[in-house]
Structures are given as structure tokens and as C-alpha cells.
Prior knowledge:
It comes from Centropus bengalensis (lesser coucal). By secondary structure, the protein is of the alpha/beta class.
Amino acid sequence: xxxxxxxxxxxxxxxxxxxxxxxxxxxxxxxxxxxxxxxxxxxxxxxxxxxxxxxxxxxxxxxxxxxxxxxxxxxxxxxxxxxxxxxxxxxxxxxxxxxxxxxxxxxxxxxxxxxxxxxxxxxxxxxxxxxxxxxxxxxxxxxxxxxxxxxxxxxxxxxxxxxxxxxxxxxxxxxxxxxxxxxxxxxxxxxxxxxxxxxxxxxxxxxxxxxxxxxxxxxxxxxxxxxxxxxxxxxxxxxxxxxxxxxxxxxxxxxxxxxxxxxxxxxxxxxxxxxxxxxxxxxxxxxxxxxxxxxxxxxxxxxxxxxxx
Length: 309
């Protein structure tokens, strides 16, 4: 097997045996994108994931619920991240950079703004995926701004380059979207992108659910990275809960009843009554019955006797 391909997939956590098996089937010249696709099809998993006895770590977590076990460690994750209450962040570097550059310039500053936003929130696992050819000197048809930021983020082990190479003068680029979705899925994290990845949704039903539930869209407003407060719509979780492994339910804010003590709705009143004890309230009718000396059950017995006469 070619050392470069073997090393690359070993870094992603795949076993040499699985990688060599795929390369034998596809040929030594197979593209990295095709090799990854075949590894996924085979059901091969990174070794860090396979070593866990319980398969529950790979189960998809329902919206708003919390994962039962911390995410597995791979791709250079810090030990402290496994105990973090914040979800791992996987950023679509090309999407963010082109969005910040108004779809005309690959603006690396946009990536930095996004990374800083998540850092300030306390996220310790942040990965940015960018095609390798973005390291090349910028051309007129693909301008890049602040390219030095990519080098700085790579040194911080935040930025990951997806493979690309030139064959007979033509650039062969691996599909970076597949890396983005796969890493986010395996890490039970969040994808930061304005892309809907419709082709990958059709390719894998589990990815379809994951993309629908874990895609965080965003906007840039005056060089400010701004995700929405309601990532899954007005009836979904808040942004804080969306980015947390353990969502926190906010306490209900009760509005005082405008009728106060004159209210006649009893326990059916939807407003807050400070003068009433916290236990369930009796309705007005029940309160009147409770005040009557003759017990309600005795009354029913008397009525039954009258009916039978």
C-alpha cells in the first residue's frame, strides 16, 4: 500500500488490515475519497471506537437528549474534552471562508472568527476541514485572503487538510464534505455549515437524520459570526441546548394572574397566584363541596337510595 494513504487513514484511526484490504480491492491508485467510501461501506470503524465494548457510543442521540457515554477519543482529542458538557464542533472550512468572502474570496479570517466564537463558549474540541490545495499560492480564479491563518490553525491542531493531488496536470480533490459529516457523526458533534449535504443524506440514512438534527447554520454580520438562537426552528431547542451534551431546561416564568384573589378559575387558571399554596389548586366547585358538612360520598348514597324507592 502507498505509505501516504496508509498513514492518512491510520491517523483517522482505521486498522492497517482494513486499509490494505480496501486497497487490494480498489487498486493502489484508488483515490482517498473512494477508499474512505469503501471503508464506510464495509462497516469499518476507527480502532478507538471498536475498542469500546458497548455499541451504544455510536448510537444517534435524539434531539434534546443527552448522550449516555462521553464521545470516543480520536483525531488528537484532548483528555479534558471527554468530560466536557459541550458538543464537539466540526467546521466546514470552505463553506465558512467563502461565506465570509461573499462567495468571491476564500476568507480565512471568517474561519478564525468561527473558531474564536466556539472557543469563547468553552468548546475544547474544534476541527476545521479544508482541502489541501488551499495551501498552494492563490490564483486569479481562486483568490485567498489571510492565508497565514490556515497555517496557524494547523499548528494548533484545529485545522485538518483533506487530501488532494495532481495527476497529469489536473487536480484530484477528495470529497471534503464526507470527512466533515463522518467525523461529526462519529464524535456525536455539530456540523457548522450552510450546506445541506443533500447528496450525503441520500447516501446514508443515518447521516440523513444526523445532518437534519445537528447542522448549525450561521450568518456573518459586520465581521461577527452569528448562529441562530433557534437552530432547529422556533419549536426546537435553544442554541445553548443544541450545543450541549446535557441540555438544561429553563424554569418556567409565571405571569401573575390579572384577576388576583378575585379569580374564579381555580386550578384551571394558567396564571400564577402568589396567595395560593404550591400544591394543586381545587376548583371553585370542589372548594364549595369541601366546605359542606355532609361528605360527598354520603350524599351520593342518599341519592341512590331515593332513586331505588
